[in-house]
Amino acid sequence: MNSTAVPRGASEPFRQLRALRRARKLKQEDVARKAGISREAYLRAESGQADPRMSTFLAACEALGLEVVLAPQHLAADVNAFIASRNGGVTAASMAGQAAPSAPATAASPATGSFGSGTGEGH
C-alpha cells in the first residue's frame, strides 16, 4: 500500500480524519497526543484495525479542530452545502478528494459522514 492509499477497513469518518491529518501535515502521534489517546489506539482506528469507541472518534475530531454535528438524513445535503458555503467550499470530504456526500446520517464540521450503524461504545 502506498503512503496515500486509504486502508481498506477504515470507516468513512476515519478516512476523512486521516485525509485532514495528512493535509495539515500532522503525524498520528500529534493527533493522538492532542486527543489524549495512545498512538496505537489512533493508528488502529485510522487504519480500520479496530472498531473505536465513539469517545475516541470525538476526541480525534476535537484534536483536528472539528465539531461533530448530527443531522437528519433528509437535511444532510443542506447541512453540507451550508458548511461549504461558510468555509470557502471546503469540506473534509473535498480535502479527501471525494465529492460531497448527498445524505449521510451524521456530519462532522467541516467533515461529513456517518460514524456507522452498529459502532460505538462497547463494540
Automatic annotation (TrEMBL):
<feature type="compositionally biased region" description="Low complexity">
    <location>
        <begin position="93"/>
        <end position="114"/>
    </location>
</feature>
<protein>
    <recommendedName>
        <fullName>HTH cro/C1-type domain-containing protein</fullName>
    </recommendedName>
</protein>
<feature type="region of interest" description="Disordered">
    <location>
        <begin position="93"/>
        <end position="123"/>
    </location>
</feature>
<feature type="domain" description="HTH cro/C1-type">
    <location>
        <begin position="17"/>
        <end position="71"/>
    </location>
</feature>
<dbReference type="InterPro" id="IPR010982">
    <property type="entry name" value="Lambda_DNA-bd_dom_sf"/>
</dbReference>
<dbReference type="Pfam" id="PF13560">
    <property type="entry name" value="HTH_31"/>
</dbReference>
<dbReference type="InterPro" id="IPR001387">
    <property type="entry name" value="Cro/C1-type_HTH"/>
</dbReference>
